[in-house]
Amino acid sequence: MKHVLQLLLLLAITSVTSVSMAQKQPNIIVILSDDHAYQAISAYGSRLTQTPNIDRIAREGAIFRNAFVNNSLCAPSRATLLTGKYSHSNGLTINDFSQPFNVKQQLFTRILREHNYQTAWIGKWHLQSLPDGFDYWQLLPDQGRYYNPDFITMNKDTVQHTGYVTNIITDITFDWLNRRDTSKPFCVIVGEKATHREWSPDLQDLGAFDHVKFPEPHDFRDDYKGRKAAADQDMSIAKTMQFTYDLKLHINYKKDHPYKKMNAAQQEKFSAYYSQAVDKDFDAHHYTGDSLVSWKYQRYMKDYLSTAKSLDRNIGRILHYLDSTGLSRNTIVIYMSDQGFYLGEHGWFDKRFMYEESLRTPFVMRYPGVIKPGTKVDALVANVDVAPTLLQAAGIAAPADMQGASLLPVVKGKPAPAAWRKAVYYHYYEFGTHHVYPHFGVRTDRYKLIRFYGPIDSWEFYDLKKDPHEMHNSYSDKANSSVISELQRELVKEVTRLKDTSAAGVLRLTL
Ligand code: CA
Q1: Among 2-16, 102-116, 223-237, 357-371, whose mean pLDDT is lowest?
Q2: Residue 414: CB partners within 8 Å, gap ≥ 6?
Q3: For residue 73, how far is its CA from the centre of ligand 1 (angstroms)?
Q4: What is the per-residue pLDDT for 511?
């Protein structure tokens, strides 16, 4: 009898211990949007719009005010998020999939799964190869569509969902969460399509900004003096933005991609709005020259911000789901974009450049009991840090070859530890669409040094305190020579530490 009691006691202790261990591992939701600019988020002081639900995550957790990406492009950003490695180390440097992403390599989601987690990726994935090491996935093929999107399922069928993509992705997420094994913690990445080009809003948000005239950024008509790469790009609102595909002018709903995929009821509402707001206005005014560029900017902002309204609303639905199911208190919620985006700064849309608007990414994180509400972090952080952060939160040591660092030490609301990085390293490789020359560089809390290579060979230097909009390349200014030398040493240090052989070749370094 005594032995039986001892055994029962032992079983009870073991059971309590395993329950408390499991509870210590937080659930994780990463909401990863696409091309959502910090300039369009009120927590970042947006002058353009309100984002109450993203702001709520920032208010109840931390806002990272110096969050960057290591390569400002869709697929490489996702690869870095998953691997905790820079593009040259995880093998995915560009959006061209002649060499598909190797999903069999080390991914933080697989490591979580090996440590008791259930894992899922839902929505935009954009890595060509199908996922590996997840309990569940349902993906948009490539970029996916805003209306009636196809999804690839785990048995490799394609299913079409009727409706608007951001709502559908949330619904699929809830469906999986409702069916999950509740004895285990979960990690789900919600891969949003919004706010990627072509910025088609949900029907209920059409016209949401019609009453607003947006102020043009003061560098909207940049002449790119002293910046050859900026001058040679093909991503301007003036020249690159397309009238039908982007601006929805005179859409032929029978022929024009992607609008031909809408159903009759959707087309009727879409057409009722755009035929008045765009076609009629454009036909009546015959905009040309500067007035045409201004008109395009106003339309771009209206579509972009209306599309973002659904994104924020659906983030609100996810937060409400966590509240109503009692999951909020033990769930980490991260909201971030895969990179920043130009909302007319330098006259542009798109991303790619190491200039501020595309180098930065919005990044807010709620972690009840660990991150104090209202925390503001100014340390230099990057998307390469997400994987090691989430592994540490789950009580798992990050593998030594992960190149990012856990953010948990810097979210305590204190100054960054002395050992924290002094510069963020960046490397953009793709030279094709939008004609942005490859470049790499470092950004410190005040300065930025960029080396363009390939078809051109040039350096750029900016003092962000004196020139926050990066209008004056002051690399040749002798007054900056000692700061530039210091940054060049930092650059060499980073290229060497990270073993970026292609950058080393440009710098004629032997690694
Ligand atoms: Ca993107």
Answers
A1: 2-16
A2: none
A3: 5
A4: 86
Domain 425-507: which CATH number of 3.30.1120.10, 3.40.109.10, 1.10.1790.10, 3.40.50.10490: 3.30.1120.10
> What is the reported pLDDT for 380?
97
Percent of the chain with pLDDT over 70: 95
Ligand 1 centroid to Cα of residue 334, in Å, is 17
Q: How far is the CA of 11 from the centre of ligand 1 (A)?
A: 50
- Mind spelling out the 3-state secondary structure of 191-235? ECCCCCCCCCCCHHHCCCCCCCCCCCCCCCCCCCCCCHHHHHCCC
Measured between alpha carbons, how far is 73 from 361 in angstroms, rounded to an integer? 11
- Between the CA of 19 and the centroid of ligand 1 the distance, in Å, is 39
Kindly report, as residue ranges, where domains of CATH 3.40.720.10 are found in the chain.
Answer: 27-200+311-415
Cα(140) to ligand 1 centroid in Å equals 14
Tell me how far the alpha carbon of residue 354 lies from the centroid of ligand 1, in angstroms: 14
Average pLDDT over every residue of 235-251: 98
0.85 surpassed by pTM: yes
pLDDT in tens, 406-432: 999 999 766 666 789 999 999 999 999
Cβ contact 112:390 at 8 Å: yes
pLDDT of 165 > 60? The answer is yes
Distance from the CA of 358 to the center of ligand 1, in angstroms? Answer: 10
Strand partners, 27: 331
CATH of span 27-200+311-415: 3.40.720.10
Q: Where are the beta strands (DSSP E) in 62-218?
A: 62-64, 67-68, 118-124, 136-140, 150-152, 158-160, 186-191
Distance 221 CA to ligand 1 centre (A): 24
Rg (CA), the chain: 24
Instruction: Quote the percentage of the chain above a pLDDT of 90.
Output: 92
Cα of 303 from ligand 1 centre, angstroms: 17
